[in-house]
Amino acid sequence: MASCTVASHATAFIKKYVGLSAFSSSPSSFSVPKTKRRNSREIVSVMTPQQSPRSPSATGSVKTAMTMTEKILARASEKPQLSPGENVWVNVDILMTHDVCGPGSFGIFKKEFGQNAKVWDREKIVIIPDHYIFTNDERANRNVDILRDFSTEQNIKYFYDIKDLGNFKANPDYKGVCHVALAQEGHCRPGEVLLGTDSHTCTAGAFGEFATGIGNTDAGFVLGTGKILLKVPPTLRFIMDGEMPDYLLAKDLILQIIGEISVSGATYKSMEFVGSTVESLTMEERMTLCSMVVEAGGKNGIVPVDSTTHKYLEDKTSVPYEPVYSDEQARFLSEYRFDISKLEPVVAKPHSPDNRALARECKDVKIDRVYIGSCTGGKTEDFLAAAKVFHASGMKVKVPTFLVPATQKVWLDVYSLPVPGCGGKTCSQIFEEAGCDTPASPSCAACLGGPRDTYARMNEPQVCVSTTNRNFPGRMGHKEGQIYLASPYTAAASALTGFVTDPREFLQ
After folding, report:
1. Alpha helices, DSSP H only, in 185-225?
2. Which of these, 256, 285, 408, 413, could form a disulfide with 380 (CB 3.0-4.6 Å)?
């Protein structure tokens, strides 16, 4: 289903010729005139003969073709060109942090730059509480307080605060999951460099920008300088063509890719997604594709900017941006080609995102619950997709089905947007009719476990089909829990049967 072409790497050797004479007009001929031997001690001086002025080259400057990622980093490092493996100081456009990593990053910033130091640019820092929010855990609550204190002290322009944990709607500034909020609030812009203290920051690559996760130490340095030292990654190109079947979603595509190359197949590499199938995807589906790049070890994921990108950004930002595109002759470490029309719904079995299997091959796997949410699987279109399956079946779920909208906007969409082809019903109406749990407060919730009182956390060794992004032991709570990663279609279909289920059972 996929073919891989490994690009040849021709190494150019520059031979240095050392000439013994400047008199010869031809580099291939060299002669020494015969002379009579002298016995005199007279000193003979040798002068370099006059040479005609050398005319300048008419070929112009040499330009090396570059990939999208190389071009963005070249621009951000103020260099005319870059190649994979080079280490460069990069100017950062946006730094995002949240309640889990923010306090540590702030501590490092103050330690290294001084207790009274000011951040490099208060308008380029985005602080989003989202991970451990709706909990009675005192340390988790304290982390949000630290974000608030730092934002007040530094006069941070974009701090999306939450104070009333009992009613998220009473907090108009609160957004929810950082990676979805960054896009909705206009912080994702083509051609820019966006860093975040979260591995799934690569989600923003869907907007044609360089986006990657960094650690607290690097974030502390960026807070003070607006710069970071990065090694330019080589690029893997994934070419996806063919009409997307109506039973597949972007989650199926990225699980297929990770299963193909493994969780280490893109280690410190850029993953560039192109092809007619990618061009047909919505922005939210492109975000799904890029969000799990890190599950393959990728440094960043990136999708070329097109009319879909521009349309999404029309009402999101007024900041001018300049897209870049890979040169036709750009070098890719390898290329993978997929005919998407031939793919089937897939899942990632426990306990690794690359443990790929066809959904229909797992039809005998009995499950205990279904979870629909996270940056990867909790966007508006993810809930519309799940609702489509529930409505088509006319059935009720057979296992507890937890719904966690990524942001306040997604939550509102769940309650207000009519689901296409469902007689004007909203997602919330369809979910209620199917017997799902009431949509929860927007946050990361059980995607990464969290405190024991986190909504939908796996506190028992259960089997869960989830639209999240990781299925390592303990990821959603209990270390003996089993997580099957799947698309919203497959998750909804599985909720209806109580077994891992191919959504074609309800969509065809």
Report:
1. 216-225
2. 413
Angle at 167 between CA 162 and CA 172, to 5 degrees: 50
Cα–Cα separations (whole angstroms), residue 72 to 75, 105, 150, 208, 381: 5, 25, 31, 9, 29
State the Cα–Cα distance between residues 202 and 179, nearest whole angstrom: 9
**138 within 8 A of 172, measured Cβ to Cβ:** no
Which tens digits make up the pLDDT trace of 132-143? 999 999 999 999
Q: Each residue of 322-351: pLDDT tens digit?
A: 999 999 999 999 999 999 999 999 999 999
Beta-sheet pairing, 227-231 with 401-404: unpaired
CA proximity to 107, closest of 225, 201, 217, 197:
217
Cα 222 versus chain centre, distance: 19
Q: How far apart are CA 162 and CA 481, in angstroms?
A: 31
Q: Report pTM.
A: 0.88
Q: Say which residue the tokens 């595509």 belong to.
A: 253
> Strands of 125-128's sheet, edge to edge?
158-159, 125-128, 94-98, 193-196, 210-213
Residues 6+ apart with CB under 8 A from 219: 95, 97, 101, 105, 108, 109, 195, 197
Cβ-Cβ contacts under 8 Å for 498 (sequence gap 6 or more): 366, 367, 398, 399
